[in-house]
Give the backbone structure.
Amino acid sequence: MGIFSTKKSWINLTIWVIIIAFIIAAPSLLPVFRLNLLGRYLSLAIVALGVDLIWGFTGMLSLGQGIFFALGGYCAAMFLQLNSAGEFPNGIPEFFGLYGVETLPFFWEPFKSSIFTLFSIWLLPAIIAGLLGYLVFRNRIKGVYFSILTQAALLVFFNFFNGQQKLINGTNGLKTDVTQLFGQMVGSEIMQRWFFWISAVLVILAWFFARWIVRDRFGNILIGIRDDEARVRFTGYNPVIFKTIIFSIAGGLAGISGALYTVQSGIVSPQFMTVPFSIEMVIWVAVGGRGTLLGAILGAVLINYAKSLVSEALPASWMFIQGGLFILVVTALPEGVLGWIRKDGPKKLLFLLGINKKLETYPSLEVNEQGEVKS
Amino acid sequence: MTSPLLELKQISVSFEGFLALRDLNLVLNQGDLRAVIGPNGAGKTTFLDVITGKVAPTKGDVIFKEKSLIGQKEFRIARKGIGRKFQSPRIFENLSVQENLALAVSRPKTPLSLLMKSLKVKHLDQIKHLMSIVNLQSKANIRAGALSHGQKQWLEIAMLVGQDPDLLLVDEPVAGLTDEETDLTADLLKSLAGDHTVLVIDHDMEFIRRLDCPVSVLHQGHVLKEGSMSDIQKDPLVIEVYLGKTDEEEQ
C-alpha cells in the first residue's frame, strides 16, 4: 500500500488495542444503561463503515442511508413481534387490534422464520440499494444530483412508512423491548448484554470485510471512480457495476446496523428515516476520517457518546456543538481526526503550541528556534 | 492487402447545428504511426471522442477490426483494444505508480476477479517491463499525484500500453514537456508503432517532424490534406489555414 504503510499500521494497531481492551472491559466497568448506549453506538459504527465505503472511497455522497438502516430494523422488529404475538387476539401483534386488522398482512408471513429474518436483515436492504443504485448509476447521475436523489428517496420512504398504520403501525413504529427472544424479554439486562457483545463482534467483522474489499485492486477501482470516473471507463472497466456493488454492500451493512440498533433501543420507527439522522451518519465519517475505515468507527462511537454526555449536561446545546465540530473538521482537518493523526498532526500541534520543540523533519528549524530563545 | 484496422467513413458530428466534424474519412492500417494536426477548434479531440464512444456521430460509421463501433459503451470499446491518452495527463493520482499500472494490465476487468484473485505473475512482470520503458522503476510505490508533469504523461502512456490495445490514441502527449522529454516521448511512440497502431494528435511541429510519419491535417472538421511532413509544409492550402496563420501572428 504506499510508503506510509508501516506507520499507518502502527497507528491502526494501537487504536485497535485500545478499542478491544475497552470493549472487553466495558461490561464490568459500565452500568447497564451506559453499556447499552455503547452497544448502540457500536452498531451505528457499522452503518458508518458503509457510508465510508461509498463516500470516502467511491466518492458518492448518499444522504439516504437511513432507508436501509430502517429496513434492517423493521425486519428484526417484525420477527420479534411475531415471535411474541401468541398471547394477543388472532395471534398477531397487538397494535393491529388498534386499527381493526384481523389477519396478518402477507409480507409479515416470512418473518415468522428466524432464518429468513437473519438473511433479510442485510439481504433486503442490499437488494433494494442495488436496484436503486443500478438505475441511478446507469443513467450517470452523480455528484450533487446523486445526493439530492438519495435524500428524496429517503423522504419517500419516510412518508410511506409514516402513513402505513395498518401494515407496520405507521408513525408509532414497532416496539421490540417487550418482545420475547429465547424465552427472555428483549429489553432485559441479560439480553442487552448479549446484544452488546454481538454488536462489538459484528463491528470488528464488518471492519475486516470492508478492509478486504478496499485492500487491493477492487478498492483501487473505487478510488479511481472517485477521482476520475472517465479514466476508469477508458481503461476498460464498467463503473456502473462497481458502484452498484459497493452501494449494495453499504446498504447491507446499514441493514445489519439498523437491526442491532433497533433491538438495543427498543423500537424501530420512521424516525430512523429522518433527514438529519442520515446526514449525521455522514458527519461521523467526516469527523472520524473519510477514506479511513477505522476513522468511520471512531467517528460514529465517539460522536454519539459525546452526544449523550453533552445532552445530559447541557440539553439543547448538542446541535450547536455538532455543527461546530463539523465546521472545524471541514476547515481544519479535512481528512478527519484519523487522517490528521496519520499525517503527524498531533506532533505539529504540539510544536505549534511550543510544548514539543523537536520536529524530526526540520532539524535546522529546531536549531534556529533554540538560537532565538537563547539570545 | 488486408483490411484496415480502423476506418472512419463520412463521419459528421453536429453540436446543436455547429458541425464539429464534417464528412471525415480516415484509414489506419495495422502498425501505422499517424500524426493529426490542425488549428484549435479543428475537431481533433471530437474526432477521438467519436472513436472511443464518448460522442455519438450524427452521421457516418467507425469500423474497427471490420466491426462497427457505433453505439458501443466506452468501456467495451476500450476492451476491444482502443486505448486513449487524454490531453492533460489523467492518471489515478491517489494510487501509486504500480497500482495505476496494475489496473491497466488486469484482465479480466470484472469486479469478481479484482476482488477474489491476486494479480498474475505475468501481469506483475508486465508492470515491471512497463515501468522500465518509461523509466519509473524507482517510483513504483510513489503516489502518482506526486510525479512531475512529464512523468505523469509517461505513466499514462504506460497505462495505455498496459491495456495492450491494438490502437493507441494519443492526444497532445508533449504539452508542457521539456525539449528533452519531448524527444524521448517521440522515440517512445515511434518504438510502439509497428506492434501497435498509433495515432498522435498534437500541434508541436518539431515533435511531429521528429515522429517522421504521415500527417493528416484537420481543418474545420475534415481532412484537408494527407502526406509527409515536408509535403504538408509545402502545400499552399495548409499554409493558408494553419501554418501561414501562425507565421502572420508571429509577424
